[in-house]
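Task 17 of the worksheet. Students: predict the tertiary structure of the chain below and write it out as structure tokens. Keep your answer in the requested format; marks are given for formatting as well as content.
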Amino acid sequence: MAYEDLREFIARLEQEGELARISREVSVELEITEIADRAVKQNGKALLFENPKGYDIPVLINAFASERRIKLALETERLESIGEKLVELARMKPESILDGIKALSSAKDLMSFIPKKVKSGPVKEVIDHDPNLLKFPILKCWPQDGGRFITFPVVITKDPETGVLNAGMYRMQVFDEKTTGMHWQIHKHGALHYRKLKEMGVDKLEVAVAIGVDPATLYTSTAPLPENMSEFMFAGFIRKKRLKMVDCETVDLQVPATAEIVLEGYVKLDEFRIEGPFGDHTGYYTPAEPYPVFHVECITHREDPVYHATIVGRPPMEDAWLGKATERIFLPMIRMIHPEIVDINLPISATFHNLAIVSIKKRYPGHARKVMFSIWGTGMLSLTKVVIVVDDDVNVHDMNEVMWAVTSRFDPARDVVIIPDSPLDSLDHAAYRPNIGGKLGIDATKKWREEGYDREWPDVVEMNEETRRRVDNYWDELRRMIL
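Model answer:
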């Protein structure tokens, strides 16, 4: 059964022994995040702080911070199965990623998960037209942060041309009782809606922010979906049940009816304020920069809301498992478009967008380079800084095997692709200029004669199958003594 709301997921975590309730009074200034950081790095449980100092609203954190919990969140034993079902819905072999997306967007079975509009919901239990953000236990995560930040917001905007709702996740620094920053980066759909309205001469963009939503909706707000593909429809697809949406009080937007908290307001298109610094998922503080200001006009919430938060910083952190979910869910779609791809690894330690390791079934000379350019031309993977391509006999998730392949099958003089002045993630601090810099491709596949490699490749050292089978017969007996 699909989780109706965040509370049902909390109950499931507790039932599965994956939740720790913290009754001790703990400060929202640095202390909660220090505890959460220690917990995630030691494979700890999800944490529900029942008595944040100075507040009567509990704080949930680390809810997705393990492979088991992200699978519980999305109600699947195999994350890849979600993507495999998407590929089935396409019912075609597309010529390009665009064809594949069009097929998915129009798939009848997927359309059946269009959100269901309802008259009201639990998020309407309290309606406050004189809002005060400071009544919520919003966290200050790191010592040099510019203030307290909402870190798990589902930010909802509407495309002014198509009317399609978008849900994205952009951090929000709290400036005072009624204003926050809106850190939507240049590549995000929220920023696209902002630019479209500016070109149309409109002076503000309506925004709603849902905090504390069901797990599938929170995940899809982080997923790299194509423009005008609804995150709420995708959430319904993952949940196998339509999402209930309700009209806002003051803006022409809809929000999840079972959310814990909703902020309603607008962003003026000519107003900016210095936002940051912020300890980010790169492991560095993102410098203070001007970003749009979000004005809160109304807050609706449950009578006894739960405040859902996360902390990002030097990996691994909770966001690692959201990123790994995306890697696994979208792999079948990538393989549908590029069938030569066997597997992909976006390493947590490389913060996902800095490195992609791809294994392929090599079919022709130059194939590895074709795959590099395919990666750099596919959705948000276009921001990937380094792509390493290996043969299909290499496990991309075993860094020992990857390093073995790179150092034994790669010649730096010939097997490198360097591209200057290409799009990069806004948080890439190594780039000399924001949002643009170099890309590196490493061809660590075995080279063919047609590629100019005239030598014979030596055989890989491996045991023969007959000996393996003989040892398999008594290996369990020995393993207990050896391992």
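Marker's comment: The radius of gyration is 24 Å. The longest strand covers residues 261-275.
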